Amino acid sequence: MRNLDPRTHLFILLLATVMWFFYKEIQAVHFFCLIAFFYMLQAKETRKAFTLLFTYVLLQAAAFAAYRTALLYIILHTAARAVPLMMFSSVIAGCNPSRVLASYAKIRIPKTLLIMICIMMRFFSVLMKEMSYIRDGMRARGLFPHWYDYCKHPIVLYEIFFVPLTIRCLKLSDELGASAMLRGLDSSATRSCIYKIGFSKGDGITAVIYTLLMTSLLIISYHNVYYDFF
Questions:
Q1: What are the domain boundaries of the chain?
Q2: Are 16 and 31 in contact (CB under 8 A)?
Q3: pLDDT for residue 184 is more than 80
């Protein structure tokens, strides 16, 4: 499934985004998250799939525990509902940027938007490395040796972790923007690509299967038919 055309992933993401607005019941959101989980497994994003599924379960459990506190419940539940969309979008983020640009250029997406997509895909992958570098630096200086120390000193954590991260993000945006221009992303010439771009039978089968799954879930949710274990 990793070899599917990026336009297929984009179609499924757009479909999931539309369906997401109509899933009102919590059971429907649970099933929606499972669909996104299996979608990531088929895309060979196993580690990310389990990480995001665990994040969803954790947020839902925290929201259930904070049910009597309305504001906290809304924040946690809204964050949990956004996780399935993150799972669908992470599949696109895992694609090769050159393949994504060449594929999206065929559907006449504006070049400015293509450049933004390319920079974002590079930005988030580099950002994870920068965060790990900051954590390594904190450990090397003996700061926050235990995980519970983060909860004891949240203000110090913000100063030590988020301030350097914010500054580094500003520098990264400039560096990636300059790199994109040097690679000719703003060139008016037709972009070439070494990857094969085109739809296959797998693209059609995948699009049909997930369209049926999400549509069926929408119909079931409106008739309030769910399995007892939810």
A1: 1-96+197-230, 108-194
A2: no
A3: no
